[in-house]
Each structure stands twice: as C-alpha cells, then as structure tokens.
Amino acid sequence: MTAPTVSKTRLVLLASALAAAALSSACAPLVVGGAMVGTALMATDRRTSGMQVEDQGIELKAASRLREQLGDRVNVNVNSYNRIVLISGEAPTEADRAAAERLVAQVENVNRVINEVSVGFKSSLSSRSNDVLIATKVKASLVDARDLISNAFYVVVERGIVYIMGRVTEREIHRATEIARGVAGVQKVVRAVEIISEEELARITPKPPANK
C-alpha cells in the first residue's frame, strides 16, 4: 500500500502540537519523522518492524537511565535509528556529558552512540519551539522533493542544528543535506546515517503490485 501524501499544512499543524509537547517537557525529543506523522507511514520505514520496536525500546530505556542517574540537571534527548543512537541537548559539565554517553552505550542492543550533547545551560523554551518549527520545515521540504522518499529520513533539530538519521544512499543524503541547508534558520547539518548501496535500496524498496 502506498503511503498517503502529507501536505505542508498538515505538517505545520503537527509542528504546533509538537511545540506544545516540547514546551511541557525539558527532555522532549524534537523530532519530525515518518513514524510520528502516523502509523500508515511506518510501512515505508527502511527498518524492519522488529527493529522499529527495538529502537523505541532503546529510547525508553536510555531516557529512563538518564533520569535515574543524572536527574533534571541535564537536558538530553535520545533518538535511535537501527541501533545507532543520537544523544543531543545540554549538560552542565563535561563529566555529565561523558556520563550520558556511557549510560546510553550500556543499554542493551545499542551499537553506537553519537554524542552531540553540548556543555552549557539548558536551551530556552523559545529555542526549543523554534527547533520544532525548523524540523517541520525541513521535513516539508523533503516531502516536496520529487527525487527523494521523505520517510526514509529521521530529522532531529537542536539549537538550529539539523541531524539527519536513516538508512540511505550517498545520493540521497547529499540531496537531503542540500535541501536542509536551504531552510531558513538552519545553522548546520550533521549526517548521522547508515549508508547503503543503490542495489540494497532497490532490494528493500517495496515493489508496486503487478497489474492483473
């Protein structure tokens, strides 16, 4: 089944909902991805359904450990894609930043941790709201790109820095990076992806049903 097209209007409405969620929690992940738009789009995720569930489990376990060990003195967001875990946000000291990485790396099934936590004060509510809006604009721009499958990308934004996750080809990530850099408010684009070949992409891309 082909995933429904998501309009920019719907994504903007989603941004408002996400902004409210982000403002209500110091550790709310600022993410706009296919799975967050709706379950119908999960069918186009390049992870297996089992891996999607596993990634969700990693995020929950990691977030729980961070709360238990570091409390509310840090603002660390956890996003896992195919067992590659991106941690972002803020920690008051370098020791806390290193501790956050260590705690997440110890979670079962984590293959690699990309530590993008900055040392400093927690971001403001307005900064987090702005990040959600930037993420929505990036995702909307990816949806508009006819040469990309937007749901292949998992977008995280912190302090205007766009992190792109997913299982994509070199061609796709170069194009997505170009698009993200053109969005107003984006300070930098960081690639946190797993590169696959064009052959692998062809193998995992669902084939349209044959005409009878």
Q: Can you describe this structure?
A:
By secondary structure, the chain is an alpha/beta fold. The protein has one domain (8-200). The protein is built from 7 helices and 7 strands, in the order H-E-H-H-E-E-H-E-H-E-E-H-E-H. The strands form 2 sheets. Strands 1-5-6-7 form a 4-stranded mixed sheet. The chain has a 3-stranded mixed sheet with strand order 2-3-4. Helix 1 packs antiparallel against helix 5 and helix 3 (49-70) runs antiparallel to helix 4 (94-105). The two termini are 16 Å apart.
What attributes does this structure have?
22% strand, alpha/beta, signal, three-stranded mixed β-sheet, single chain, 212 residues, globular, Transpt-assoc_nodulatn_dom_bac, 7 strands, four-stranded mixed β-sheet
Task: Please outline what is shown here.
Pfam families: BON. The chain is an alpha/beta fold. It contains seven helices and seven strands.
User: Largest sheet, if any?
Assistant: 4 strands, mixed
N-C termini distance: 16 Å
Question: N-to-C SSE series?
Answer: HEHHEEHEHEEHEH
Kindly report the spatial arrangement of strands forming the biggest sheet.
1-5-6-7
Protein name: Osmotically-inducible protein OsmY
Pfam families: BON
InterPro entries: BON_dom, Lipoprotein_DolP, Transpt-assoc_nodulatn_dom_bac
Organism: Roseateles asaccharophilus
